[in-house]
Write a structure and sequence with these properties.
Two copies of one chain form a homodimer. By secondary structure, the first copy, chain A, is α/β, with parallel strands linked by helices. Chain A has helices spanning 39-42, 59-63, 83-88, 101-117, 119-127, 131-134, 155-164, 190-195, 216-222, 239-247, 286-304; strands at residues 9-13, 30-32, 48-51, 70-73, 92-94, 147-151, 170-174, 185-186, 199-202, 227-230, 253-256, 275-277. The first copy, chain A, is built from eleven helices and twelve strands. In chain A, helix 2 (59-63) links the parallel strand 3 and strand 4 (70-73). Chains A, B: Pfam families: 2-Hacid_dh, 2-Hacid_dh_C.
């Protein structure tokens, strides 16, 4: 990677298998990866680090950058960054904010329609040559009239709700607090929400409070005709229980973009037609990446001109 | 099938491989299939015939029922019924009207999201075990901001438009006539529409005028980044040209619920990840079937009490 030593060095932190690259703002900074020959020189003085995707950033990593003042995350979620440790070290943290929200919401609707109407399963049916042999594909489930519960009515959840309205769904939600000026029914817990709906869309942030927020009790409440879509984080759902419910027919179906041990996906799901499996790509479009790049440029510029950062995480919550 | 000879006989007309059955209104009529021992007795006197799905009904069939007054179709489209011949014989024809419209519109949105965001292809990627091997799935395309053209702004097309609005798409349409009180841009031909949009949703009725309405010129106008969804009828699209465009990368992608020679699907499409294939099931949900059954009951009742039929086709158009 060509570097310009007149520009401030910014450390690019990523797991080797996160191959995605953003068009870093090369006119305003000097992006340095650990493979760069100049990396050892810049390590002690670098003030900014950019975390690519969900690459974990822990205290051992932070120890290597004594001058670090700011960590820029490129994901909407920041559960892979040790926020408590950043707070202790007075390191500020930003996320991708709402740059991915539209794509995330679009994909959630796509997964919901797919699970209910069996789009992927129908595609498999045709490609396997079964249409001329078996005739009609079994009836699927209608979307209109379903009671959809949104777990986390944040930036993505709100856009999911807006998209669902013209489909004739009844929308409800759970979140840390009841939102004012929202026309949807509020339930204080995921269990209450699941008890009063038949479809859950999970799109909240992962934290100690939300880990396994979708557990055995919630899945039981959702029931045999219930479906669940998860575009948040794998660990929001107790995956072992989910697999058991799906395999035993105790849950109607699931659309899963995220998993507890990515890229590992429980193999028991591979043969189920009421499940849509997706390789954590709900937000992967060039347009979203452009938005995040713009956000990064704005944040780097703001940082070096001492202006307020965009999409900064309030670390006092952690 | 148990019969009640006190109720009026109604002929059930279907191709043998259309295995779907509706819960016929057995309390108000006596449904007779050609396999029924009483069929030869009822044939000369039957006044009503119900056509199941897209089973063709031509003049040879009609010749067998000299007392026929009314043909009830169970599909939204009636292109499989020889309407000119029905008109000549003074036989009235009804369709499923808008009973399937919501499900058709939902499915169209599902196919559009699937083609753009590669939902089915991603599912295949995971099930084939490629995620841990190849890492990230390639970037897909954003739905928001796309210029979507609807071919046929009827019952289904209007619901498609309504559903697309919150996704941030610009909506335009073509139809026989410009509709008043519709906020979308109107183009008089499919070619004009394709020239001014990047995504087509085909959901008009099939007739002599609309056969191959999506032809080489329209596909060229749609272009390499353009996508097309067809939930209407296979013959609305010149399938040979479509396959050529897709195989040669001259069209961005397609979501196809219908084909020219169903259940045959061109095998060249089976290996393409930018194509979603579906076995003519956009409207197959129990809820839609219930609606059609209700409609049939209402129509049978109306017929025998000399009241106006519901969803009657204006045969003077044919």
């Amino acid at each position: 990677m060509a570097t310009d030593n007149n520009l401030p060095a910014i450390i690019i932190h990523r797991l080797p298998h996160f191959k995605l690259s953003f068009p870093w703002a090369k006119n305003i900074c000097n992006p340095i990866e650990s493979s760069d020959p100049l990396y050892p020189i810049h390590k002690p003085s670098a003030r900014i680090l950019i975390v690519v995707g969900p690459s974990p950033l822990n205290s051992d990593h932070l120890d290597q950058y004594p001058s670090l003042e700011c960590v820029f995350g490129t994901s909407a979620g920041v559960d892979h960054i040790d926020l408590a440790e950043c707070r202790r070290r007075n390191i500020r943290v930003t996320s991708a904010g709402s740059a991915f929200s539209e794509d995330g919401a679009d994909y959630a609707i796509g997964l919901l329609i797919d699970v209910l109407r069996r789009v992927s399963a129908g595609d498999r049916f045709v490609r396997d040559g079964l249409w001329p042999v078996q005739g009609y594909y079994p009836l699927a489930n209608k979307l209109g009239g379903r009671r959809v519960g949104i777990v986390g009515l944040g930036s993505i959840g709100s856009l999911v709700a807006k998209r669902l309205e013209p489909f004739g769904c009844t929308i409800a939600y759970t979140s840390r607090n009841k939102k004012s000026q929202v026309p949807y029914a509020y339930y204080p817990t995921a269990l209450d929400l699941a008890t009063n709906t038949d479809s859950l869309i999970v799109c909240c942030a992962l934290s100690d409070e939300t880990r396994h927020i979708i557990n055995r009790g919630v899945l039981t409440a959702l029931g045999k005709k219930g479906v669940m879509v998860n575009i948040g984080r794998g660990a929001l759902v107790d995956e072992k229980e989910l697999v058991k419910f799906l395999v035993e027919g105790e849950l109607g179906g699931a659309g899963l973009d995220v998993f507890e041990k990515e890229p590992e996906v429980p193999k028991e799901l591979f043969t189920l037609d009421n499940v849509v499996l997706s390789p954590h790509k709900a937000i992967l479009t060039p347009e979203s990446f452009d938005k995040v790049t713009e956000l990064m440029i704005a944040n780097v510029t703001a940082f070096f001109s001492n202006k307020p950062l965009l999409s900064e995480i309030n670390l006092s919550d952690y």
